[in-house]
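Support request, please re-run this one:
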Amino acid sequence: MLERRALLWQREAGHGGGDRAQAGTGGAGGGCGGAMAERGPAFCGLYDTSSLLQYCNVCQLLKGLPTRTPLNGAGPPRRVGGYATSPSSPKKEATSGRSARRYLSPERLASVRHEDPRSRTTSSSSNCSAKKEGKTKEVIFSMEEGSVKMFLRGRPVPMLIPEELAPTYSLDTRSELPSSRLKLDWVYGYRGRDCRANLYLLPTGEIVYFVASVAVLYSVEEQRQRHYLGHNDDIKCLAVHPDMVTIATGQVAGTTKEGKPLPPHVRVWDSVSLSTLHVLGLGVFDRAVCCVGFSKSNGGNLLCAVDESNDHMLSVWDWAKEAKVVDGKCSNEAVLVATFHPTDPALLITCGKSHIYFWSLEGGTLSKRQGLFEKHEKPKYVLCVTFLEGGDVVTGDSGGNLYVWGKGGNRITQAVLGAHDGGVFGLCALRDGTLVSGGGRDRRVVLWGSDYSKLQEVEVPEDFGPVRTVAEGWEDTLYVGTTRNSILQGSVHTGFSLLIQGHVEELWGLATHPSRAQFVTCGQDKLVHLWSAESHQPLWSRAIEDPARSAGFHPSGSVLAVGTVTGRWLLLDTETHDLVAIHTDGNEQISVVSFSPDGAYLTVGSHDNLVYVYTVDQGGRKVSRLGKCSGHSSFITHLDWAQDSSCFVTNSGDYEILYWDPATCKQITSADAVRNVEWATATCVLGFGVFGIWSEGADGTDINAVARSHDGKLLASADDFGKVHLFSYPCCQPRALSHKYGGHSSHVTNVAFLWDDSVALTTGGKDTSVLQWRVV
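Re-run finished. Output below.
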C-alpha cells in the first residue's frame, strides 16, 4: 500500500510518468521534498512524519532504478496511449499527460488508440488549446556532443551531425532556396464520388473538370493537361459560360496553416489564359458553394450560386461587376442543381432532396413555384436537369424516372417511369435532338429518341462504377464521369474506354520504380495501381482484400511489397501483378515496407511499435522472418536504409530516432557507429539532414512525408495543410527556406521522386488525387 501511495505521490511530485527524465526530479524543487513544500503544510499534514520518511526513501529507490535512454535522448520508453484528432477526422497524436489535445470525433473514440497521427482528413493547424510545454523551443546545437536538438510538442529530438560537418556547422547559417522548382505537369483523378455536372467539352478540344483544388483542362487528342490553380481548397462545382471560354468554379471554406479562415467563394476565370477575371462572394457564402451556373440567353451576364448554409441560399450575381443582384432561401434540404433556363433569362431551376423549384427573377426579386408531381410519386431526390430544344425541362430522379416539365410550367407533361434501375444520375440533351441518360445502380448509358423511345444502351464496366455525369463530345462521342472518380470516352454504339483513372478513398501508399518511369499508389479503396508517368495511365490495377497503407519496390523492380491496415502485407509481381506471397505481422497498420538497397532484407514497420525484419531471396520472391526490432515506445512512421545496407533508421509517433542492425535485429546505441552513415534515402521526417523542414510552432504531425532526390540536391515535403515544399538538401538549418506549391485540398500524405529525378509525385488524402510535378 505504501509503495502504491509513493508511486502516486512520486508521479504528482514530478518523478514519474512518461516524461520522468524531463520532469525535474532533481534539485530543490524537483524532489519529493520540493513537491511537498509546493503543496504546503496542508499537504504534509495529511501524513505523519514516519510515513513521509518512508515515502522519501521509496522515492529515492525509484529514482535509482535504471531507465532506458534512446540514442537520440528523447526520453524513457513509454507506449503512447492518448491520441487526438482534427475536427473532421480521426487523428492520433503522440501526447504526454500534459500536452494539448485536438478535438476528437465522437464516432472514433473507441478506435482512436490505433490511428496514425497523420490520418487526418482535412488540414489542421496548431493545438486547440496550447499549453506552455507545447510551444516551440529554440533549436540547440552542442559542439561537444556533435548534435542538434529540436523540440516537438515540448519533447527534445536530438540529431547526430556527421563529423565532416560538425566543425563548421552553425545555426546562424542562412539556408538557400533550391535552384530547381516544381511545375504541375499532370493530375491523376477526377471528383465524381460526390459532385455532379462537372465535365464539359470546350471548343479547344479540351475537357474541363476538377479534382482537389485544381481545375483541369485535358486535351485528349494531344494528351496534354493545363491547370487553373486559383483555388485554395476543394472545388465543388463548375459551370461554363455561353461563350465557351469563361468558366466559373466554386469552392469550400478552408483554414490557413495559421488558423485564419479561407471563405468559400466563386472564381470566374479565362480558360485560354488561365487568368482569374473575378472573385465573387467572399464573406457572403457559408460553408461551401455547391452549385453554380451562368445565364444563357442574355449574353451570360448573370451567374447563380447556391451555398451549403442551413437554408442553402440561392444568389444571383452580375459577375462582371462582382455585385449580388438578389438572393433567397432555397431549401433546408440538400440542393444538387442550380441552373438558368437556356431561352428564358428570368427563369431558374433548382432541385435536390425532395424538391424541384422554378424561380422567377423579376424586378430584382426572386419568387419560386414548387414542381407538382400530382399523380406521380414524389421522389426522394431530383438528381439532374437538362433542357430540350423546345424549352421543355427534363429531370432524372432517385426512383429511376424521367419527367418532362412543359416550358414555363411547373407540372409534369410526360413521364418515362423506370427508365433506369436505380437513380438517374446524369442527363445530356444532344445536338441532334436525342437525349442521353446515365444510371447509378444499373451503370447504363441510354440513348432516347425525341419521343422518349429507347434507341440504344450500353453498360459501363463495374470497375469504373455508376455514371455520375454525361457530356457531349465531337460527333457521337460522349464523355462519362463516374462515381468511382473515373472519366470514360466512347459512345452508346461502341461502348466506353478509360480516359482518366482515380482512386476512390483516402490515399497513402506511394512508391517509385527503381529504374523506370513508373510508380505505385494504394489506399483505403483496396486498390493498387501501377502507373506510367509517361502515358499517365495505369499499367495494371489490382484489388486486394484490405485497405492499403504503404508500398515499396525491390531494387530489381520485379517485386512490390504492399502493407495494409490489418497487419497483413503482400508481395506482388510487378510484370503480371500476380500475388507472390502474403504474410501477417501483428494486427495493426503496416506504415512502411522497405527493401534494403542490396535486396537482402525487407523491413516491415508496424503500428504495434515493432519493425519486422526478413531475409530476401530469389529477387524478392522468397522471404523468411529473421526477427523483430523492439525498442520504440510508439508506432513506426518512417524508415531509411544505409547505402551499404548495414543498418537502418526509424522514426516513431513519439518523435524517437532509433538505429538498428538488421542482421541481429538489435538497436545500435553507439552514436559513433551511425553518425557518419550514408543513407540511401531520406524519407524519415526526423534527422539532421531534414530537420529544417519543420516550421515554427509545428506539433510533430504537421509533416507527413519527405523525399530526397536521388542526386542528393533536393528535398520535398508533404504537409497537413495541402502544401508541397521544395528545399535544398541537406536541409539542416532551422526553418529552412522553400518553394511552396498548392493543388491538393486535403492533407498531402506522401511524396517521392522518379528514379531520374525528372518528376516528383505527391498523393492527397481525402482529395484522392495524385499530382505529378516536373522538376524544372
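Residues 49-64 form the longest helix (16 residues). The radius of gyration is 30 Å.
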